[in-house]
Amino acid sequence: MKEQRKSMGLLETAKMNGLEPHAWLTDVLKRLPSWPEDRLNELLPFPSYRFSDHPAQ
């Protein structure tokens, strides 16, 4: 139950920050296997998030 609340919180945060929650989660799950652990904060659903098909500049 606690994990479910955390997941829902991340999805709500994505929504509040103008991201489509399903698209954000799908993109994050595709990236995770090869994403460096010291850069995990870049995957959080904040306005600065960049989808993988739109590289950061």
Automatic annotation (TrEMBL):
One Pfam family recorded for the sequence: DDE_Tnp_IS66_C
Residue ranges constituting the Transposase IS66 C-terminal domain according to the UniProt record: 10-45
Descriptive protein name: Transposase
Domain of life: Bacteria
InterPro entries (UniProt xref): IS66_C
